[in-house]
Amino acid sequence: MLCSKRGQDLQSMPRITSRLQSFLCLFNMEMLLIIIDCTNHEARRTFDSWSLSVSELMAFVAILFLRATLCPIGAMIESWSEKYAVPAIKETMSRDRYKEIMRYLRFDNKDTRAERVKTDRFAAVSDIWQRLVRNCHQCYIPGQHITVDEQLFPTKVRCPFTQYISSKPDKFGIKFWIAADLETKYMCNAIPYLGKDPSRPKGERLSENVVIKLMEPFLGKGRTVTMDNFFTSMSLANRLLNHNTTLLGTINKIRREIPPPAKHNKGRVVADCDLLLPLSVVLQTQFHCL
């Protein structure tokens, strides 16, 4: 049923024939014009005649892509040096112009940010970010399986929601909750972690709230969501099942909702599985021997 519906949806979507079209599906012209307006507004605080065009912004973005794919190690400025120069980058834009754009680049109007940040901690990029995420799940139809997890994006920026996670290669950064298509690794939906969320219902687990938000555009369509034991719970499985969505994940045996027989693993082999049937959910659980 899902495969048939997905096939019909794919046929109704416009066919992408170039990388530029793919980029503009996610980062459309309206978003580019917003960035240009905000960047020009910031630059003209210093230089009245400073201006950024659409073609220059596109070239700037192209340089960022080239840098990430060709030479991710070392300082960005080395891309214009004699020793480590990247010809494609040097031919696209001069070093000084790149530095100017980077200096003034903005994603919102700084004059109104102080008021917006009172209710939106992500205010500096919130508008562009929400547009990007909306485009991500409107321009792509994921397959049967979607996986939910966290990812730490490293940054040296100082902000109140920067996280420190010792187990990550880059220990400082901004954490995002991400729903991705299992087969293609395409980002279907994402939420930045900004600290305590006042909109989360009292008594609802953070993990459960995150999964429901990430899966909201895909509920009721017969998909399966995969997750680790931070997210998995009986209550979440039931909520998803009520929306014709199944859950596959590991679950910690110390959870109170796990029946006592499943908690005793003495003498059982590794990867031994039990089928638990509390409420209306079937969970496959895996425990290691003591």
UniProtKB/TrEMBL annotation:
Any single Pfam family the record assigns to this protein: DDE_Tnp_1_7
Domain of life: Eukaryota
Entries under InterPro entries matching the protein: PGBD
Domain PiggyBac transposable element-derived protein: 22-264
PANTHER family: DUAL SPECIFICITY PHOSPHATASE 26, PIGGYBAC TRANSPOSABLE ELEMENT-DERIVED PROTEIN 4
Name of this protein: PiggyBac transposable element-derived protein 4 isoform X2
Species annotation: Austrofundulus limnaeus
